[in-house]
């Protein structure tokens, strides 16, 4: 079976040779299969964000190989990276990162417009994803007129509208109240289940992590433990995560 | 301790502060440059024959003062937006608000005072160089012009000190009134969205109506010079208002229309650019309309200045047909004549018996004499020639001026070769040359005229050649031309740096947007072109409106200037090149701030 994400021996060192160096990632190996919902957990400074930046082509590894959807992203030039992000990746950020001078509709349509998709195809694509995420009523609103939960769902719609190979979430529930967070995670889980969209979530929140099929724990730049949900209920998995965090932190 | 912290805060934001400082210095430099002309009554009265000049300059002062106040207001907002977070933090840590407001007062005032002092010094130097450059480049004669003029300096300092005192008080009060949390989080506070289609429509109509009224007033005042004292203020008010509403409503409507046209808006980043613009236009309306007015004034000043230069050409060419006239040329003069770019040359001989001068008719058959004829209605001069000066008073007049003063009073007679040979008297040879261009051959023409004056001292008083006419006319018009150019350049520097400052001060807020676009996969090239487009529109909206203002505003001069629209492409080209320079500079600085 083809892998969506394949990370091999990735290492990231900050600082020039000869100066004081800092190893943010060392010998990271893992993979994500199509349709998987994977979480990466770790404390602040554990290397989560570095890893996510490398996966999303915003940063390059010092050594090692990263393949996404069969393509080695460490060998791309700047333009190819931009195209790759536009075509293959969807992003959901903690602080939404919506453009406040565009309406919800225009924000969602942006990735398609960037790919020069014809206008005729943009409208049905936006409508369909908006319906799935319950945004139909608010498409003409500007972000400042929306609640945090609504904003994040618009951001999710923007991440999904161009049918990327994988969606990366960087603490997507970090700025939401518990009700909105739960609603967003339910939605992501549903899309993952029904539409087979692969999702990779970076978080330090055990509740968010409990929605994943599999969790990788990262500490001091290394992947340690791996936890699988398998046939557990979400509540049981949540408990399991809490237990692991307790032992992993030691 | 707090003062030390505040100072170190400035060090960390040295780039932003250098933008602020240079902006304020330019403002005070230009204010001084303008005042050095406007308050110098001796200069104004000796260089302009028109009584309206003082009035126009007084108006200019009022206008520049308003513009400067608005400009400093922007600068002040920029300063406050830089500092409030830091001051908010000091307050959170327990600093008293009275202490904080005193600090912002001192900071605002110090920045104002330092930049005004340096700016005025720059103004003095700039006045000197711009003045010298203009005088030598355009061969001007300007009287009573001095780059250092104490009253101007005093006014500039006083004006800026007062404004900065007000700004400092305002900042202090506004900081004292704000809550700590508001100060800390101002960056992340949402922009309000206004949707008011009906008001916009009314504004669009009102804007166009006001512009039409302003344009008509200028047309009317131009053709009825008596109305000019009422006409200029009325035109100014209506056009300022009209520009404001037109930009606010009309331009927004165009953007909305483009946004609705999805085949255009949903291509690449077009929609983003349009949205940026429609948000910007709301925020920028004041400055864009101000810039359009200043653009018009600056361009108008240069156009009118150059119009006076055209006037020089026109009047000078109307005075004499020939560019050079030499009596009995010696070797040196012959050599100089040879170095001219000759288009027509004539050599005539005449003899005199003390009662009249006698020319050979035959010489005019072979080389007709040229003369200029003025049409009193259009003030236009026509170049003609005659092979029978005996029956052409214009040609005889032209010929008269080519003789030495003592022969001018004598009657000219045109006789056959046989009669001429029979006359017993001294023979004089006159060589007349028309070059391909008076202006291009000016240095040699000047040398020949000077040498003639030396050889025949009586010419010094009487003049008569084209160079003498040129000297008189040039002296008359170049004061006006100088004012036009000087003001034009000063206004341009002011408006463009105003616009640049405003655009750059918004750049920090755009960093996040462009970073987000980059993250979701926009190529750097696309980001760059988006920025170029956006800034190009912000620069071209006031430029287009300004050009229309000028084209119609020149109607004010139809009775004063000969053909005010002639050679209009020259000032426009000069102006656009300078303006484009500012555009490229803004674009470059903006990208440096926004893109990593």
TrEMBL record, chain A:
Gene Ontology CC: membrane protein complex
One BP annotation, GO: amino acid transport
Protein name, entry field: ABC transporter ATP-binding protein
Similarity comment text for this entry: Belongs to the ABC transporter superfamily.
Organism whose genome encodes this protein: Companilactobacillus suantsaicola
One family name in Pfam for this protein: ABC_tran
PROSITE patterns: ABC_TRANSPORTER_2
GO molecular function: ATP binding; ATP hydrolysis activity; transmembrane transporter activity
Keywords for the protein's UniProt record, in alphabetical order: Amino-acid transport, ATP-binding, Nucleotide-binding, Transport
Domain ABC transporter residues, every copy: 5-245
Annotated InterPro entries: AAA+_ATPase, ABC_transporter-like_ATP-bd, MacB-like_ATP-bd, P-loop_NTPase
UniProtKB/TrEMBL annotation, chain B:
Membrane topology note: Multi-pass membrane protein
Single GO biological process annotation from the record: transmembrane transport
Transmembrane region(s): 17-35, 55-82, 103-126, 146-169, 198-216, 228-258, 287-308, 482-504, 535-558, 570-590
Predominant location: membrane
Keywords: Cell membrane, Membrane, Transmembrane, Transmembrane helix, Transport
Domain ABC3 transporter permease C-terminal: 59-171
Gene Ontology, cellular component aspect: plasma membrane
Taxonomy, superkingdom: Bacteria
Subcellular location as annotated: Cell membrane
PANTHER family in the cross-refs: ABC TRANSPORTER PERMEASE (PTHR46795:SF3), ABC TRANSPORTER PERMEASE-RELATED-RELATED (PTHR46795)
Family stated for the protein in its record: Belongs to the ABC-4 integral membrane protein family.
Record-given protein name: ABC transporter permease
């Amino acid at each position: 079976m083809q892998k969506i994400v394949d990370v091999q021996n990735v290492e990231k060192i900050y600082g020039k040779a000869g100066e004081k160096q800092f190893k943010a990632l060392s010998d990271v190996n893992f993979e994500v299969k199509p349709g998987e919902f994977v979480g990466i957990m770790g404390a602040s400074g554990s290397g989560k964000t570095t890893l996510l930046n490398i996966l999303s082509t915003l940063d390059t590894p010092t050594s090692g190989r990263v393949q996404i959807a069969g393509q080695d992203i460490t060998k791309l030039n700047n333009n190819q990276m931009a195209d790759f992000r536009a075509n293959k990746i969807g992003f959901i950020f903690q602080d939404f990162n919506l453009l406040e001078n565009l309406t919800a509709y225009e924000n969602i349509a942006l990735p398609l417009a960037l790919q020069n998709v014809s206008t005729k195809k943009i409208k049905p694509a936006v409508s369909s994803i908006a319906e799935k995420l319950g945004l139909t009523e608010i498409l003409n609103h500007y972000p400042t007129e929306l609640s945090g939960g609504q904003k994040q769902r618009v951001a999710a719609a923007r991440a999904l509208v161009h049918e990327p190979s994988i969606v990366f979430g960087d603490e997507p529930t970090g700025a939401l109240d518990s009700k909105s967070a739960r609603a967003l995670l339910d939605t992501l889980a549903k899309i993952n289940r029904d539409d087979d969209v692969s999702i990779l979530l970076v978080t330090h929140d055990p509740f968010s992590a409990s929605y994943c099929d599999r969790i990788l724990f990262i500490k001091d730049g290394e992947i340690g433990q791996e936890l699988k949900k398998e046939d557990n209920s979400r509540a049981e998995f949540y408990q399991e995560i809490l237990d692991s965090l307790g032992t992993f932190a030691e | 301790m707090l003062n030390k912290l505040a100072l170190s805060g400035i060090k960390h934001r040295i780039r932003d502060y250098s933008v602020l400082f240079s902006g304020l210095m330019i403002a005070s430099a230009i204010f001084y440059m303008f005042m050095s002309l406007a308050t110098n009554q001796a200069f104004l009265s000796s260089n302009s024959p028109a009584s309206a000049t003082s009035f126009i300059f007084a108006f200019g002062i009022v206008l520049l003062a308003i513009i400067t106040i608005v400009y400093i207001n922007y600068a002040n907002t920029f300063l406050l937006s830089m500092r409030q977070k830091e001051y908010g933090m000091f307050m959170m840590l327990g600093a008293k608000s009275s202490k904080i407001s005193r600090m912002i007062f001192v900071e605002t005032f110090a920045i104002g005072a330092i930049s005004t002092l340096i700016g005025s010094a720059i103004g003095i130097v700039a006045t000197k160089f711009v003045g010298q450059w203009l005088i030598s480049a355009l061969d001007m004669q300007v009287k009573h012009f001095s780059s250092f003029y104490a009253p101007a300096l005093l006014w500039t300092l006083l004006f800026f000190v007062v404004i900065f005192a007000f700004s400092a008080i305002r900042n202090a009060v506004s900081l004292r009134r704000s809550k700590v949390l508001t100060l800390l989080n101002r960056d992340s506070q949402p922009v309000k969205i206004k949707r008011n289609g009906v008001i916009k429509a009314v504004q669009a109509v009102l804007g166009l109506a006001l512009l039409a009224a302003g344009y008509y007033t200028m047309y009317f005042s131009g053709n009825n010079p008596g109305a000019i004292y009422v006409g200029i203020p009325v035109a100014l008010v209506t056009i300022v208002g009209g520009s404001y509403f037109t930009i606010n409503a009309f331009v927004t409507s165009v953007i909305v229309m483009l946004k609705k046209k999805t085949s255009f808006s949903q291509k690449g980043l077009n929609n983003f650019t349009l949205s940026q613009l429609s948000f910007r236009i709301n925020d920028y309306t004041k400055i864009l309309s101000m810039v359009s007015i200043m653009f018009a004034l600056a361009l108008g000043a240069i156009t009118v200045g150059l119009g006076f230069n055209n006037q020089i050409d026109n009047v000078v060419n109307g005075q004499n047909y020939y560019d050079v006239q030499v009596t009995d040329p010696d070797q040196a003069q012959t050599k100089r004549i040879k170095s001219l770019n000759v288009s027509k040359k004539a050599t005539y001989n005449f003899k005199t018996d003390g009662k009249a001068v006698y020319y050979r008719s035959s010489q005019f058959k072979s080389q007709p004499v040229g003369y200029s004829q003025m049409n009193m209605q259009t003030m236009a001069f026509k170049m003609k020639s005659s092979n029978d000066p005996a029956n052409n008073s214009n040609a005889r007049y032209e010929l008269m001026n080519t003789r030495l003063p003592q022969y001018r009073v004598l009657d000219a007679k045109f006789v056959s070769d046989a009669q001429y040979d029979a006359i017993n008297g001294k023979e004089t040879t006159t060589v007349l040359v028309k070059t391909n261009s008076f202006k291009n051959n000016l240095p040699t023409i000047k040398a020949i005229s000077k040498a003639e004056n030396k050889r025949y001292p009586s010419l010094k008083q009487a003049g008569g050649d084209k160079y003498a006419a040129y000297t008189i006319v040039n002296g008359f018009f170049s004061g006006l031309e100088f004012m036009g150019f000087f003001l034009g350049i000063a206004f341009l520097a002011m408006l463009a740096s105003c616009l640049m400052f405003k655009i750059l001060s918004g750049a920090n807020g755009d960093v996040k947007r462009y970073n987000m676009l980059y993250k979701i996969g926009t190529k750097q090239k696309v980001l760059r072109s988006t920025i170029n487009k956006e800034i190009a529109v912000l620069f071209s909206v006031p430029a287009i409106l300004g050009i229309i203002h000028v084209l119609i505003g020149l109607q004010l001069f139809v009775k004063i200037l000969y053909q005010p629209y002639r050679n209009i492409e020259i000032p426009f080209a000069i102006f656009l090149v300078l303006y484009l320079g500012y555009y490229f500079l803004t674009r470059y600085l903006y990208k440096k701030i926004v893109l990593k």
